[in-house]
Amino acid sequence: MTDLQARLAAEITARRDDLISLTQDLIRIPTLNPPGENYREICDYLDRRLLRSGFHTQLVRAVGSPGDSDRYPRWNIVARRAGARAGECVHFNSHIDVVDVGRGWTTDPFGGELKDGKVYGRGACDMKGGLAASVVAAEAFLAVVPDWGGAIEISGTADEESGGFGGVAYLAEQGFYAKVDHVIIPEPLNVDRICLGHRGVWWAEIETHGEIAHGSMPFLGDCAVRHMGAVLHEMEETLFPALALKRTDMPVVPEGAKQSTLNINSLHGGQDEILKPGTGLPSPVVPDSARMVIDRRFLIEEDIDKVQAEVRGVLERVKARRPDFDYSMREMHRVLPTMTDRGAPVVTTVTEAIRATLGRDPDYVVSPGTYDQKHIDRIGKLKNCVAYGPGILDLAHKPDEYVGVDDMVASAQVMALSLLSLLGPPRNP
Ligand SMILES: [Zn+2]
Fold first, then answer.
1. Could you read off the pLDDT of 161-217 as tens digits, one per residue?
2. Residue of 126, 159, 160, 377 marked active site
3. How far, in Å, from the CA of 393 to the mean position of ligand 1?
4. Exactly one of 97, 302, 310, 377 is catalytic; which is it?
């Protein structure tokens, strides 16, 4: 490490307690999504903090985005601090929402308890610990490095867990990424891994159609559920084996996600199994409709049109051998795969910072599921983006979620060293 790098790293070590209490404070604001609670509260908290650190801040409500209402407004914060001279803009983006608590906790999910070097709570690793690390990294950088150029931005955004439309997508549409050069998303990928991107997503609803009749004479109707059974059978016989053979060169983790996958997200046919209290037994009818929602994750080597054609092929094969089979298919959602180049400036910068901080080379990974990089890429038109942050990905959304304090300190050092090489004074030869 250079002298300045070492001083910066030491400054972050000295701010360890501050990093812990910031993470605890963020966890204690329950920003559950759905429905999208307390976005304004957490933005106000970050606003006070970042104003004190000399940032200009802007609170942006994603008016009209999915889920935005007066009861649950989609608030975001964007903070910016410019240096003394011109230069590039480094943007840290963290989502402020957390998922449902679920069962099985032995700690208070919104208590932010510190125990054995770990901070516990819903959102500890995904991703309030990462958000706190980026704030402390920027503040330490400002304290130690007076001579710098360009701008540092920190955003806290809504709704990542439900697609990010009221968060990063909205900001990107408003042009917030137009003047950004580098984006680091402190998602919990582990301190020594850089996430370059994610697989693609295609959601569709398949419906089989039948004909209603009395349940005692099913031969007078046409059962949509049996048609759907034939679809499932065909999927088992041909589609799932074909998907298992498609392997990607993307460094996707975990290993099982290095192939194409398909999840049957829901399946429903006929009347509701559980009727509203007091309405008695179901009536005997042949179901005339069955619906299935599929969640297909595809690889960068695959073409979205072919992904769709493959599923349609399943349905057409069933149709060819099954009299009266009729179906419809409706796309619900699509996200193309994205992967930042390993030679991109943000990748090489974070790589060097990891080497300097941890003394080893990072692993490069690709996420099995999407995150807000999709909007930065597609709407913001910015390819120079990675996810890098503290915490263990496997703990995300689980009971007793935690983030390790040592991990937070190390990743804040990596973030601060990245700021130093992108915005700091030119290095002496
Ligand atoms: Zn996350």
1. 999 999 999 999 999 999 999 999 999 999 999 999 999 999 999 999 999 999 999
2. 160
3. 9
4. 97
Is the dihedral angle over the CA atoms 126, 127, 129, 133 positive or is it negative? Answer: positive
Determine whether 97 is an active site residue: yes
**What would the two tokens of residue 97 be?**
């929402």
Our CA angle for 304, 306, 309, nearest 5°, is 115
In single-letter form, the type of residue at position 398 comes to K
Rounded CA gap, 207 and 190, in Å? 41
Q: Per the confidence metrics, is the pTM higher than 0.85?
A: yes
Q: Which residues surround ligand 1, an ion (CB under 5 A)?
A: 126-127, 187
Q: Could you give all domains of the chain from N- to C-terminal order, each with its CATH number?
A: 3-198+338-423 (3.40.630.10), 200-335 (3.30.70.360)
**Residue 83 contacts residue 149 (beta carbons within 8 Å):** yes
Beta-carbon contacts of 373 under 8 Å, excluding residues fewer than 6 positions away, are 183, 185, 197, 198, 338, 385, 386, 387
Whether 234 is catalytic is no
Q: Using the mean position of ligand 1's atoms as its centre, give its distance from the Cα of residue 319 in Å.
A: 41
Percent over 90 (pLDDT), the chain: 93
